[in-house]
Amino acid sequence: MNPQLKSFQDKINYTFNTEAHLIQALIHRSYINENKDRQLTSNERYEFLGDAVLELWSSKTLFSQHPDYNEGQLTNLRAMIVRTETLAKISQEIGLDQIVFLSRGEESHGGRENISILADTFEAVLGAVYLDSDIQTAFDYLDRVLLQTSVDMAKAKVYKDPKSLFQEVAQAKKGITPHYTTISESGPDHQKTFEVAACIGNEQIATGKGPSKQAAEEEASIKATKILNLLV
């Protein structure tokens, strides 16, 4: 057994009955291009399956944990839990960034830090756990690696998406609807970084960076909300 794969399984407290399931879940499509003679397939089908398992787990978990939440609150909190940034963070915490199979080119361009790749790999591995066992085992795995994040987000009231929350605070404190301004775009087309400012009127409250304008706006809005909440 590959020592890295064994270490990963120890970390997530799940040992695959068929390690081939785990290996398949780790094959990014870029890796296939440099190993065409091995007749490999990418992890995208596993990702598709894992996405469905994740949505069912998150819906069931939130429905059970928050009987006082309405449909809109449940939907927004679920969206925050399963968003790319959240899943990428969990992937790094459990070490998926170190074991995903990437091409040399993708790796040299920061593939192991690419949040889309990390989130997709998280879902693919979840699909692999389900295929290797059953739905309850997959849910138990998610309880171990993702449940605390769900609890923390609920406590922080992030069931309102960051931009909506910032808008509410801005209107309450300043009486003005905020807006966003793009400060800069950098990097190659396939891996851009955007910097965006969250503004109220002509005043810049905070800035944020991310791989998309939406992600940058969300980071800026989170920072801006914290700043406004410190104001009397």
Structure description:
With 232 residues, this protein is mainly α. It is 62% helix and 10% strand. The chain is built from 13 helices and three strands. The protein has helices spanning 3-12, 19-25, 29-33, 44-65, 71-82, 84-94, 96-99, 104-108, 115-132, 135-145, 147-155, 162-173, 213-229; strands at 179-186, 193-200, 203-210. The protein has a three-stranded antiparallel sheet with strand order 1-2-3, with helices on one face. It is flat and about 60 Å long.
Question: What is the number of strand segments?
Answer: 3
Bulk shape: flat
Question: What value does the average pLDDT take?
Answer: 90
Number of helices: 13
Secondary-structure content class: mainly alpha
Whole-number count of domains? 2
Fourth-tier CATH superfamily name of the largest domain:
Ribonuclease III domain
Instruction: Quickly give the CATH architecture of the largest domain.
Output: Orthogonal Bundle
In which order are the strands of the major sheet placed?
Answer: 1-2-3
Strand-residue proportion: 5-15%
Determine the N-to-C terminus distance. Answer: 59 Å
Residue stretches low in confidence (pLDDT < 50, at least 5 long) are none
Features:
single chain; 232 residues; mainly alpha; Ribonuclease iii, N-terminal Endonuclease Domain, Chain A; Double Stranded RNA Binding Domain; three-stranded antiparallel beta sheet; 13 helices; 3 strands; 62% helix; flat
Short description:
This protein has 232 residues and is mainly α.
